[in-house]
Amino acid sequence: MRKVLLRFVFQDYWLFESVGNELLVGVGWLILIWTTVAIIASIVNWKLRHDMEQIKASAFFWLLLPVVVMAIPMAGLPLAKSGIPVFGYGFMMFIGFSTATLLAASRVKTVGMNPDIIWDMMMWVLVPGLIGARLIYLMQYGDRVVAGKEGIDRLIALFALWDGGIVFYGCIIGGVPGLIYYCRRRNVDPLVICDVLASSLFVGEGFGRIGCFLYGCCYGAQCSRPWAVQFPPDSLAFSKMVERGIIPEDAMATIPLHPTQIYSSVAAFLLAGLLAWFFPRRPFDGAVLALAWIMYPINRFVLESFRDDEPGRLGTSLTFSQLLSLGLLATGILAMAWFHHRNVLTRHAGPATDPGSSITRETH
Prior knowledge:
Layout: E1 4-9, E2 16-19, E3 22-26, H1 27-49, H2 52-75, H3 79-82, E4 84-87, H4 88-108, H5 116-146, H6 151-159, H7 168-186, H8 190-215, H9 236-243, H10 260-278, H11 287-304, H12 320-349
Parallel strand pairs: 1-3
Antiparallel strand pairs: 1-4, 2-3
Helix pairs in contact: 1-2, 4-5, 4-8, 5-6, 5-7, 8-10, 8-11, 10-11, 11-12
């Protein structure tokens, strides 16, 4: 588990060494990898488009990194001493978002839409989704986030997404308004888009939960199984167990715990696979969305029973996520029934714009 996945340092450009719980990598390796990727991208771009102006623009963009890296020690910035950290949580969130978007852009072509729709829409979904995810987290753990902080540090803590602290359900709650607005703006059926995105959503969560594992949040209850894990002192799980008096401050690691983050990641990838398989077989628009709406709350309710990072709510032993899961399960069943009924009404009303479907497709 690495809260900081690796740290690019300036003292030795070709350093590659593990120190404590961090991997120190010289910025020379970063420049080398960046340059290699730039050259490969330029070659591919030339073979596909033969657009020299585009290649020049790309080359200018890729040259920015070496210039910035060289300027940091010359300007005497604090980063020259501390290095540039790559947080495991934030990195996995980036991988998850990028992979999910690529898969959705590929899948949307099967319903006759331009992949650019997905890339454009993701910006409308990402920002409100992150806001919703953070707000729900702060509603649950706001006191913990700002504890012991004053002034500017207190303000930074509220927005420190790179340090963990977002809620999957909050991401959905925040992202849905952005998605609906975009679909109305582009005259696209939101049910079709939701069917396209459903599988990708859980691909993103699968990678995000790996980030949780690296950071040490969303940790599990005590476990005696062979696959139990222990988190190091720089993890969130360790600090929370110290606060709760479960382990002393000078402990080498936490007690053995259920790797609930890995459970969640595996479950998310399996659900993504199921939805991807179901997508071309869906009987009506909204069926994939409704299936996800039903399956995920069941999955989440069960997984919460292995976690130990959240108290019961509303005078019950059920966590916030479990209570919300019960509501989502009920509404998901209703949604499946309504989407089926909507499909029946559409078929009885006569042929739609595209025979056999009730969607309005944009294929520019």
